[in-house]
Amino acid sequence: MPLPKAELHLHIEGTLEPELAFALAARNGVSLPYADEDALREAYRFEDLQSFLNLYYELMAVLRTERDFEDLANAYLARAAAQGVRHAEIFFDPQAHLARGVEMGTVVEGLWRALGTSRDRHGVSTRLIMCFLRDESAESAMRTLDAAKPYLDRITGVGLDSAEVGHPPVKFREVYEAAAALGLRRVAHAGEEGPPAYVVEALDVLGVERIDHGLRATEDPALVERLVRDRVPLTLCPLSNVRLRTVDTLADHPLPAMLDAGLMCTVNSDDPAYFGGYAGDNFDAVRDTLGLGEDRLRELARNSFLASFLEDEEDLRAR
Ligand code: ES4
Ligand code: ZN
């Protein structure tokens, strides 16, 4: 039995496996610039975050209807459940779809068809987190928040993702203020490729409750001390860091040192279809390669529930 865990850093568009990409392409009459699934898999060799994002945005062309988003989310939830995931807080990137003429309602309602039945069907409770693309303008993010207003009963929080360097959190100050005023929870990617100062800014300017990645926080001892003291959760993604060359090899990953330093770490999959594994695969990899013992693995699983946005007793009883 895999360890029960919550997944807190998962881009639903990053769960698009080659098989489903080709099936949806056929269903929607979209042509992909790859001969077959093997040719597509060949393209999964990334130099850095941007080289991955190029393919990630390109493949989204196959996602067009509510049913596409429903099928995508159901496929993820089934795989996650099989690896012990009991709760999933799922990111989506509306701007990437709006830009292709796919409406907010299509995305949210489609995802909701799967998420709304997930507890019964897969034994996985869910939350939805809408991310802003940080390489787009703050005005575009604000328009996106506006477009989400009819769907706020389905959206728990906002996040910030895409190309990090050159797009500091402060760019989105007003958007995050508006999101907070709407009662939305706040998280942001920071310290994936960007400097520790972006982690500080995400906390101080955006008021985030968790940091997605936060790997480079380790370069700033004063920041580490603060994160430990305030028990700020970090949603780490070890296999993602290897594939995007944020670390040289998994054996070099700082997770054990981060846990030893007292940081509140969680282990997640990020974009599992692209990075070689789902949540359980990431747990297995850190166990096998980093030599984390049972107690550390349990700590990571426990942290994942503590750092989640589950709040009422009914939610917690379901664990
Ligand atoms: C992402 Cl790994 C990663 N980093 C930043 N933005 C993203 N969007 C999807 N995956
Ligand atoms: Zn991410």
From TrEMBL:
Pfam families: A_deaminase. One of its GO terms (molecular function) is hydrolase activity. Coiled coil: none annotated. Its cofactor is Zn(2+). It catalyses: adenine + H2O + H(+) = hypoxanthine + NH4(+). Keywords: Hydrolase, Metal-binding, Nucleotide metabolism, Zinc. InterPro entries: A_deaminase_dom, ADE, Ado/ade_deaminase, Metal_Hydrolase. Substrate binds at residue 271. It is an enzyme of class 3 (hydrolase). Zn(2+) binds at residues 9, 11, 189, 270. Gene3D superfamilies: Metal-dependent hydrolases. Residues 4-316 form the Adenosine deaminase domain. The record marks 213 as: Important for catalytic activity. CDD domains: ADA (cd01320). Its EC number is 3.5.4.2. Signal peptide: none annotated. The active site is at 192 (proton donor). It comes from the Bacteria. Binds 1 zinc ion per subunit. Belongs to the metallo-dependent hydrolases superfamily. Adenosine and AMP deaminases family. Adenine deaminase type 2 subfamily. Catalyzes the hydrolytic deamination of adenine to hypoxanthine. Plays an important role in the purine salvage pathway and in nitrogen catabolism. HAMAP family: Adenine_deaminase. This is Adenine deaminase. It comes from Streptomyces vinaceusdrappus.
